[in-house]
Amino acid sequence: MEFDRPLREARLVRRYKRFLADVEFADSGEACTVHCPNTGAMTGCAEPGSRVWLSHSDNPRRRYAWTWELVETPGGTLVGIHTGRTNAIVGEALEAGRIPELAGYCADRSAGERGLRREARYPDSRSRADFLLAGEPPCWVEVKNVTAAVSGRRAVFPDAVSARASAHMRMLAERVRAGDAAALVFCVQRDDVDVVAPAREIDPAYGEALDAAAAEGVQVLAWGAGVTPQGIFLDRPLEVDIAG
């Protein structure tokens, strides 16, 4: 996924009210309030004084024209914090067949059917999956953005209690019981991670939901992304430690 236009560098002053951050632009020193597109705790990714990169929107209806995209951690790692970019990053990799465990689904385009559908509604539900991959059986895919890293090149998800993430695991398990296939893809937008695990101490319910989904046969995958101010691309498989 390439950014549409060059990002602008700034310094983080503070993040607050979950969706807002104050920054100072590196080239002018001008202060500005920007949109923070991440509802999590952003542990280790919101330290005042950090270098950040922002994208700009020309939409006159937006209250905040600038959106926070990347941050450099105290250790010098670039992290993509925009959760809304995650599906584009993973969707691009799926369509290119770069995730081997799911590549066969996207290759099935028989009868003119698209190999990949985005925001597909679950049967008999108002909820939607991130992707539905054509195949026999079809495969339902949920994607989770991972930014929280702990010691030992290890990342955890979620970094805050997420009833929605637990519900997604139950939906995937239900589809497997119905005879379909299902997969969870952790998208780690940082290059200092080798292992992803559920954050059981933060959200025990999510850990239990993940255990149950995996026991039903839901595939649990993790992929790391290379992050630059020019773009973000999945480039390496990561280990998943479900036991945590």
Structure description:
The chain is an alpha+beta fold and 244 residues long. It is 19% helix and 38% strand. It contains four helices and 15 strands. A nine-stranded mixed sheet has the order 7-8-9-12-14-15-13-11-10. The protein has a six-stranded antiparallel sheet with strand order 3-2-1-4-5-6, with no helix packed on it. Strand 14 and strand 15 form a beta hairpin. Helix 3 packs parallel to helix 4. It is globular. 41% of the residues are buried. The mean pLDDT is 93.
Give the ordered list of helices and strands: EEEEEEHHEEEEEHEEHEE
Overall 3D form? globular
Major sheet details = 9 strands, mixed
Number of strands: 15
Q: What class, by secondary structure content? A: alpha+beta
Mean pLDDT: 93
Top keywords for this entry?
244 residues, globular, 9-stranded mixed beta sheet, 15 strands, 6-stranded antiparallel beta sheet, alpha+beta
